[in-house]
Write a structure and sequence with these properties.
This protein has eleven helices and eleven strands. By secondary structure, the chain is of the alpha/beta class. It folds into three domains: 69 residues, Arc Repressor Mutant, subunit A; 101 residues, D-Maltodextrin-Binding Protein, domain 2 (3-Layer(aba) Sandwich); 104 residues, D-Maltodextrin-Binding Protein, domain 2. Strands 3, 4, 5, 6, 9, 10 and 11 form a seven-stranded mixed β-sheet that branches. The protein has a two-stranded antiparallel ribbon with strand order 1-2. Helix 1 crosses helix 4.
């Protein structure tokens, strides 16, 4: 059986690529740490590191093992958190997974504010995760509800979901841009303009998808910058560095240096779903889910 302590040691060594520095971070001596890593490799029958006099580096197998180890340790932490809350008699509290857009759009903060108003005693743990990680968390019962950009399959035997938000994409321009006050903005007006593309961490091919969606609408973007989230993109637009497409709900995050325009011919939107396990185990979960779904009505 795997030793969680050894796995935590492995992650620190992998991240520092140096046993000495890892030992300092773990507040232990270098020799015992080296023995623990060697024991883990022996138990697995797998070489996790390539070693040299100056440093150690993960093998190809080690990189794969690191990804899965991080996921396992996150789950173990959530499970420990759940056990402690149960021990305090908190009905288990709530473990919530989410993507950043659930925060940006205000859906999750609104639901949490509503919950806190009626049940301030309920402990809430929030975990920013990909959609796939959240689905796995729901199946393992380490998450109670998930906020995801895509629902599980309709025939999924364990999970179900409901659409919370369909947020149209709008055009954000610098206030001084020639198109900012135009009576009408056509696709041809956007052709070749400098663009700030908003990254979609859920989709490895997001850039190609963005360009394809623009081309389908009748223009080709000249992507100059990539932003990790809509608020960052709005800041770059305000600095005059390009145009961006952002959700309508993000207008509250724009400044006077940004003009937001609707594009009637652009049929594109961001969707947010709430997903949960089909079997309810605790009343606090079904109660919170009801609050969330009420926001979508």
């Amino acid at each position: 059986m795997l030793d969680l302590r050894q796995l935590r040691y492995f992650v620190v060594v992998a991240e520092t690529e140096h046993v000495g520095r890892a030992a300092e971070l773990l507040h232990m001596s270098q020799s015992p740490l080296s023995r623990q890593i060697a024991q883990l490799e022996k138990h697995l029958g797998l070489a996790l590191f390539e070693r040299s006099q100056q440093r150690i580096r993960l093998t190809a197998d080690g990189r794969v093992f690191l990804t899965e180890t991080r996921a396992l340790l996150r789950h173990a932490d959530r499970l420990e958190n759940l056990g402690r809350r149960l021990g305090r008699g908190e009905e288990g509290g709530l473990c919530i997974g989410y993507v950043s857009d659930a925060m940006n759009a205000g859906v999750l903060p609104s639901a949490l504010r509503d919950l806190h108003g009626d049940r301030p005693d309920v402990h809430v743990a929030l975990y920013r995760m990909t959609g796939a990680e959240q689905f796995e968390g729901l199946r393992q019962r380490s998450l109670d509800i998930a906020f995801v950009p895509e629902p599980p399959a309709e025939d999924d035997p364990d999970l179900t979901a409901a659409l919370l938000l369909e947020d149209p994409l709008l055009l954000a321009l610098p206030a001084g841009h020639p198109l900012a006050e135009a009576a009408e903005i056509r696709p041809a007006d956007l052709d070749g303009q400098p663009w700030i593309a908003v990254e979609n961490s859920q989709d490895p091919g997001w850039r190609d998808d963005f360009v394809a969606a623009c081309a389908a609408s009748g223009f080709t973007p000249d992507i100059r910058l990539e932003a990790t989230e809509p608020l960052t993109a709005l800041g770059l637009v305000a600095s005059g560095l390009g145009l961006a497409l952002v959700q309508r709900s993000m207008r509250h995050g724009s400044s006077q240096d940004v003009v937001v325009r609707e594009l009637p011919w652009l049929h594109s939107s961001f969707r947010l779903w709430a997903a949960w396990h089909r079997v309810d185990l605790r009343p606090v979960v079904s109660s919170f889910r009801g609050r969330v779904l009420a926001l979508a009505e």
